Amino acid sequence: MASLKDMRNRIASVKATRKITKAMQMVAAAKLRRAQEAATAARPYAERMASVLGSLASKVADKNGASPLLVGTGKDQVHLLIVMTAERGLCGGFNSNIAKLARADANRLIAAGKTVKILTVGRKGADNLKRDLGRNIVERKDFQGVRQLTFAHAEGIANRVLEMFEAGEFDIATLYFSEFKSVIAQKPTALQLIPATVTEAAGEAKGGAGAVHEYEPSEEEVLGFLLSRNISTQIFRGLLENSASFYGAQMSAMDNATRNAGDMINKLTIKYNRQRQANITKELIEIISGAEAL
Amino acid sequence: MAGTFRFELVSPERVLLSVDADQVVVPGAEGDFAVLAGHAPVISTLRPGVLDVTAGSVRKRLFVKSGFVEVDPSRLTILAERAYDVEELTAASLAEELKTAEAELAAAKDDAARRMADTLVGELRRLSARAA
Lengths: 294, 132
Description:
The complex is a heterodimer of chains A (294) and B (132). Helices cover 65% and strands 14% of the residues of chain A. Chain A is built from 7 helices and 6 strands, in the order H-H-E-H-E-H-E-H-E-E-H-E-H. Chain A has helices at 4-60, 68-71, 94-111, 123-133, 151-166, 200-208, 219-293, and strands spanning 78-84, 115-121, 137-141, 172-180, 186-194, 214-216. In chain A, helix 1 (4-60) crosses helix 6 and helix 3 (94-111) runs parallel beside helix 4. Chain B has 132 residues and is of the alpha+beta class. Chain B folds into 2 domains: 5-85, F0F1 ATP synthase delta/epsilon subunit, N-terminal (ATP Synthase, domain 1); 89-131. Chain B has helices at 91-107, 111-131; strands spanning 5-10, 15-21, 23-28, 31-35, 42-45, 49-55, 58-72, 75-85. In chain B, strands 1, 2, 3, 4, 5, 6, 7 and 8 form an 8-stranded mixed sheet that branches. In chain B, strand 3 (23-28) and strand 4 (31-35) form a beta hairpin. The mean pLDDT of chain B is 81. The chains are: A alpha/beta (294), B alpha+beta (132).
């Protein structure tokens, strides 16, 4: 049986924990707002890019000489999985959900006899996948200590991916990140980067507007330019969505933790008071029965 | 004169500029071209250079570093990876840009990349000469 002093210490420590989780929740909420703003601000660029790419790709797609970034290398032997996670934990199942999705796909591909290469972005994903897929990790990128994600970060990753693609190190690239649905819902998502997935709907909407564009220098060159830009844009979008999701996940995890700590304090306080009463009663009985015996 | 059109300069991070412009001179890959309202639809890539925006009595000059432009009769959208207001460019930031550009030029593997980097270095040199 824990002594009263022990219980007092325990309550004090849980209270301290609650203060910390409360503070973390508020910090996450503030950062979430900023991350959401960044994600919203980045949307116009990605949308324009997608619509132009869509209308162009539907025109050029049937030509044989189209860029391998669009039509693929014609093989699907080597897969590159780009797994994006956060740098830090304390965010519920955020990192492990992404890793779980990537791991399931990787195992499925390996079972089908394909070669799997993994590029991790963010420390947590690498840590998570290291144990069973460590041999498949070809590269890891960390953004530790980066305060504000900029397009340059995405470009850095994109350039590396393009380099590997040109060197023929993989045939298909897929991006794993967490899509930001709302503060409480983040959905781990897989998005195929190479060959590019072109949304036909975007292309049609564009065509429906009746705009027939002239292309300078030429359709193929513009398309080639766009396709390589598209990689960094998609990666950038993934990074932003991920960071918004991360803060969302962290916020709800910390909210839960704060609530749990509150419950625990209530329970411990009740137990403490009962124990204290029991002690007093016991002492009283001892005194009274001692007096009666006289 | 057909009046104004919507001009938007968008970077991956945010919308940098959105104004009703009278005329914009765009540094296209195949040469500069001026866009007025009612311009025929064109999609073109950009080379590094200076955008000249005229909106009413305001003139703005912006330096853009690669990207592409989409022209519609009533709208002009420029997607640029990086853009700076020429007025805000300082000698120091120019020198820094120039250094990275020169490094890019040295590292360029194929002709297209080399040409791109070369134009960039040239433009930056011209700008810094004017700023000095």
